[in-house]
Amino acid sequence: MKVIANIYYEWQGASHTNPFSSKKNESQIKDALTAIPNQLSHSLLSDAFIGVSSNMEDNSITVEIATRNDKDRVKAVSTLTRILQEWDMRAEIKEEK
Fold it and tell me: What is the secondary structure of 28-60 as a DSSP string?
């Protein structure tokens, strides 16, 4: 089972859930794109495989998370969503069984 996420930055302004959000600069975006896979690997089960390919030219990365079962896949999506919110990043997420 796989979760594939194309992670990118898109400024959407401050929101009700994040009223103090401010626009990220290039360095902050690259820091977030570097930190997210590391944070994922520390948050998920050790038997989840995390692969990363980056395209720093357009400030995005693709993260592939392979899990053993549906329960781990659900946890991976939940964990990824939480981490993205913490870093104020966006993702297009596809799930494959």
Answer: HHHHHHHHHHHHHHHHS-TT-EEEEEEETTTTE
Q: Which domain holds residue 90?
A: 2-96
Closest CA to 7 of 42, 44, 32: 32
Domain total for the chain? 1
Residue 13 clears pLDDT 90, i.e. is over it? no
Pairing relationship of beta strands 90-96 and 49-55 according to DSSP bridges: unpaired
d(CA 25, CA 9) in angstroms, rounded, equals 10
Domain harbouring 54, CATH code: 3.30.70.3400
Bridge partners, 24 (sequence order): none
> Tens of pLDDT along 14-49?
888 778 888 999 999 999 999 999 999 888 866 788
